[in-house]
């Protein structure tokens, strides 16, 4: 479906007549042959794994890595987290604009971005988890490579997200492919959490109970353990880099962009593109609603490892608790796909996202107990699955709705996805920066096995009351989102009629 350039219709008229007539006669069978197979959908889904694997590793572990392994001051760590995410957010609409103006190549319009960015993303990701052998300039090291990785990741993820609109004309097939993608992406978060957590989880010198510390040997043990922890983070990052490359290769080999014929892109400036997407009401309501709900889960994700370690006291089990959340989410993705098909996407959003609220309350109200923590993690994972699936399942509906109401504008799907990711990532940067800064004001002790009571209280606030408030605001905004199931089905029929009309016009033009 990716669009060709203006010269291609003229080139098509130079082709021999017999192949053209054969193509016209067999148009319907060809359409059937171009339908997505389960293998195509699986390969498409695997392409989303690198973003989630690296994202889960960075989201759950980067904050605690910068504080306890790189041993940066919380203020400096907050600067790295905020600036890195803010830079990442700025690059999204920029890359989306550049992608929308890209030319069609032999491998498509999105694939070249994905292929070219992969080696640079892998290199910069590995260097984020390397502790340089100098103290002066360490902050600059992490800031530079974090920003570079985010830029390369954007060059991968924005075209990949927009690829949803170019793998099939059928809305149901795109929804099915999105479900495959969400399933694999949640498995990717499981894999990222498992690799990073299990490799680095055992490398700690801190005892389970504070009273077990041997004061005489604590400094020596700390030095040995810190070196082992640094090595463990590098091993984990190396394994994730290998998986990143393999997933990109599977995506390239298993998915083919479908090229639209007969349409030419409407060339707009960046300002025009920005106005195009930000003035479209359904898109704005969807983005703002999920902005608040996503911010809630980002706060939870960014602070949960520290919360488990210092507020609940489960230092030896925090990586396993995180893994249970992700496993629970992965296993419930198919159920959520059935739910949104049966009851509609808006109802799935209300029910799925609000499901986490009672367990956010429970985890901070009960006395610390390991079994209860695991049970709450299983239940919370169900809501995490909904938070993963629904935004990416509903964005194509907004793009379809825009196409129906603006039939003369084509080729700007990447802008809708990139601006959505821009707001989500910018909010993520704000949340990580503010939460890390809050820990500094609470008196966080870098490299310490225990923290003041004020730090524990701050972590409880960051993983329960604040996310609950954000979820409530987000769901109220989503209530005004106008695309219900009836409108979605109507758009699907109108788009199919438009495609059929374009096919007939193109066939007649070629025949003449």
Descriptive keywords:
512 residues; mainly alpha; 20 helices; 0% strand
Provide structural commentary:
Helix content is about 75%, strand content about 0%. α5 (about 50-70) packs parallel to α9 (about 170-200), α12 (about 280-310) packs parallel to α17 (about 415-440) and α13 crosses α16 (about 370-405). The chain has helices spanning about 10, 15-25, 25-35, 40-45, 50-70, 75-100, 110-130, 140-160, 170-200, 220-255, 270-280, 280-310, 320-345, 345-355, 355-365, 370-405, 415-440, 455-465, 465-480, 485-510. It starts with 7 loop residues before the first helix and ends with a helix.
Concise synopsis of the structure shown:
This protein is mainly α and 512 residues long.
Terminal Cα span: 24 Å
Instruction: Kindly state the percentage of residues in helix.
Output: over 70%
Q: Tally the helices: what do you get?
A: 20
Unreliable spans: 1-33, 209-224
Number of strands: 0
User: What general form does the structure show?
Assistant: globular
What is the N-to-C succession of helices and strands? Answer: HHHHHHHHHHHHHHHHHHHH
User: Radius of gyration in whole Å, from Cα?
Assistant: 24 Å
Main β sheet profile: none
**Which structural class do you get from the secondary structure elements?**
mainly alpha
Percentage beta strand: under 5%
- Overall pLDDT confidence: 79
Write the layout of secondary structure elements.
Layout: H1 8-12, H2 17-25, H3 27-33, H4 38-46, H5 49-68, H6 74-100, H7 111-128, H8 138-162, H9 171-201, H10 218-254, H11 270-278, H12 281-311, H13 318-343, H14 345-354, H15 357-365, H16 370-405, H17 413-441, H18 453-463, H19 465-478, H20 485-511
Helix pairs in contact: 4-9, 4-10, 5-9, 5-10, 5-12, 6-8, 6-17, 7-8, 7-10, 8-17, 9-10, 9-13, 9-16, 12-13, 12-16, 12-17, 12-18, 12-19, 13-14, 13-16, 14-16, 14-19, 15-16, 16-20
């Amino acid at each position: 479906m990716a669009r060709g350039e203006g010269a291609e219709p003229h080139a098509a008229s130079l082709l021999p007549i017999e192949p053209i007539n054969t193509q016209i006669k067999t148009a319907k069978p060809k359409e059937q042959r171009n339908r997505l197979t389960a293998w195509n959908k699986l390969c498409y889904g695997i392409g989303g794994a690198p973003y989630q694997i690296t994202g889960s590793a960075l989201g759950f572990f980067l904050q605690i890595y910068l504080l306890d392994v790189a041993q940066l001051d919380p203020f400096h760590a907050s600067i790295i987290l905020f600036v890195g995410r803010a830079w990442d957010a700025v690059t999204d609409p920029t890359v989306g604009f550049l992608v929308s103006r890209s030319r069609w190549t032999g491998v498509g319009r999105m694939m070249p971005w994905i292929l070219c960015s992969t080696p640079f993303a892998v290199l910069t990701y590995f260097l984020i988890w390397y502790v340089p052998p100098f103290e002066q300039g360490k902050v600059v090291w992490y800031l530079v490579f974090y920003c570079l990785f985010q830029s390369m990741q954007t060059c991968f993820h924005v075209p990949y997200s927009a690829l949803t609109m170019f793998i099939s004309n059928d809305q149901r097939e795109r929804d099915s492919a999105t479900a495959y993608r969400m399933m694999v992406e949640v498995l990717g978060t499981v894999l990222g959490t498992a690799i990073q957590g299990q490799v680095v989880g055992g490398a700690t010198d801190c005892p389970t109970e504070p009273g077990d510390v041997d004061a005489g040997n604590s400094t020596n043990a700390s030095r040995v353990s810190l070196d082992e922890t640094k090595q463990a983070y590098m091993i984990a990052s190396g394994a994730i880099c290998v998986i990143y490359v393999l997933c990109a290769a599977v995506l390239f080999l298993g998915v083919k962009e479908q090229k639209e014929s007969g349409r030419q892109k409407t060339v707009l400036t960046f300002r025009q593109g920005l106005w195009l997407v930000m003035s479209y009401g359904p898109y704005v309501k969807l983005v703002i609603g999920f902005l608040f709900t996503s911010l809630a889960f980002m706060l939870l994700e960014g602070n949960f490892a520290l919360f488990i370690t210092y507020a609940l006291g489960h230092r030896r089990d925090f990586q396993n608790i995180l893994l249970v959340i992700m496993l629970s989410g992965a296993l419930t993705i198919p159920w959520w796909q059935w739910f949104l098909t049966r009851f509609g996407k808006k109802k799935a959003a209300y029910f799925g996202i609000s499901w986490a609220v009672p367990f956010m309350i429970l985890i901070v109200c009960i006395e610390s107990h390991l079994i209860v923590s695991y049970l709450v993690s299983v239940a919370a994972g169900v809501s995490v699955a909904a938070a993963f699936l629904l935004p990416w399942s509903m964005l194509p509906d907004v793009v379809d709705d825009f196409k129906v109401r603006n039939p003369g504008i084509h080729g700007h799907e990447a802008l809708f996805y990139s601006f959505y990711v821009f707001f989500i990532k910018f909010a993520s940067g704000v949340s990580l920066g503010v939460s890390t800064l809050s820990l500094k004001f609470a008196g966080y002790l870098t490299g310490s096995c225990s923290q003041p009571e004020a730090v524990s209280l701050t972590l409880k606030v960051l993983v329960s009351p604040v996310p609950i408030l954000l979820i409530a605001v987000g769901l109220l905004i989503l209530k005004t989102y106008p695309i219900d199931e009836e409108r979605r089905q109507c758009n699907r029929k109108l788009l199919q009629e438009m495609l059929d009309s374009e096919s007939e016009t193109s066939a007649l033009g070629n025949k003449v």
